[in-house]
Amino acid sequence: MGPRGGISRCPCGRKLLTVCLSRSIQAAGSQLGQSKDYALPNASWSQDMLDLYNRFLDMTKDGLWKRIPSYNNILDHIPESMKLTYEKRKDTRLFLRSIDAEGAGFEYVMFLNTSEKRVVCLFQPGSYLEGHPGFAHGGSIATIIDSTIGSCAISVAGKVMTANLSIDYVNPVPLGSVVLVDSKADKVEGRKVFLSCKMQSVDGNTLHAEATALFIQLDATKAQKQQASCQ
Ligand SMILES: CCCCCCCCCCCC(=O)SCCNC(=O)CCNC(=O)[C@H](O)C(C)(C)COP(=O)(O)OP(=O)(O)OC[C@H]1O[C@@H](n2cnc3c(N)ncnc32)[C@H](O)[C@@H]1OP(=O)(O)O
């Protein structure tokens, strides 16, 4: 099994996909399948979100930044050619894409800068993410941070999992506002990837959260055990 993932067989004989988002992230900017790409503007996006999106899209023109497509099923993040060889599990969804109503859940788009080892996420939390009245639930903030940092870790080290995520919640995030989640890989030591992240308002005047994380690159033995346990 290469660092990009692939297909293997469970002890029960069922074909399983060793999911590795790195393929999708490395191919950022290109549509790999026919499924809907949710990391594109929709009617729920505020003007702030659209302006920021257009600003980042401009930055993709010289190739330094790439937009990361976003599908609701993890298997859509791998190339078409591999899809024919396994059964797609339609009953699962990526957590961030679990709410159908436009604008109600996680509205987001991520941009990758490989040379800076950085992923920036534009995030507009919807009304179903409420914690305290009018504000995003801390779990939703942790989710978007984990996913942004995670995408950054995947771009650096391939198949990884979160081992530690530490968040300081500094200022609440109003529902419907737009925040920038800016993550970067600070250090790689063997299988360990250390990352940091800031969540800030669009004008940069409000720090909403700061985080550090440790992601561990999976070794083959560990990956096989995890596949076996998902029978
Ligand atoms: C495009 C689509 C986008 C879509 C969005 C995609 C983004 C998805 C991101 C979501 C990510 C997740 O939610 S992941 C889900 C949440 N995380 C999990 O469920 C992980 C559960 N934990 C595990 O499976 C395991 O503990 C691992 C894989 C993390 C590590 O296990 P392992 O591989 O056996 O490694 P192990 O030998 O224990 O440790 C290796 C080294 O790391 C150190 N280490 C291990 N854990 C820790 C720790 N918590 N804090 C400090 N250090 C640690 C060890 O001391 C050791 O150091 P030394 O002795 O070598 O020095």
Automatic annotation (TrEMBL):
Keyword Hydrolase: yes
Keywords: Apoptosis, Cell membrane, Cell projection, Cytoplasm, Fatty acid metabolism, Hydrolase, Lipid metabolism, Membrane, Mitochondrion, Mitochondrion inner membrane, Transit peptide
Enzyme class: hydrolase
Membrane topology: Peripheral membrane protein
Catalytic reaction equation(s): (5Z,8Z,11Z,14Z)-eicosatetraenoyl-CoA + H2O = (5Z,8Z,11Z,14Z)-eicosatetraenoate + CoA + H(+); (9Z)-octadecenoyl-CoA + H2O = (9Z)-octadecenoate + CoA + H(+); hexadecanoyl-CoA + H2O = hexadecanoate + CoA + H(+); tetradecanoyl-CoA + H2O = tetradecanoate + CoA + H(+)
Domain of life of the native organism: Eukaryota
Domain Thioesterase: 134-206
Protein EC: 3.1.2.2
Signal peptide: none
Gene Ontology CC entries for this record: mitochondrial inner membrane; mitochondrial intermembrane space; ruffle membrane
GO term, biological process aspect, one: apoptotic process
Segments passing through the bilayer: none
One example GO MF annotation: hydrolase activity
Cell compartments where the protein resides: Cell projection, Ruffle membrane; Cytoplasm; Mitochondrion inner membrane; Mitochondrion intermembrane space
Protein family (similarity comment): Belongs to the THEM4/THEM5 thioesterase family.
Protein name (database record): Acyl-coenzyme A thioesterase THEM4
Organism whose genome encodes this protein: Apteryx owenii
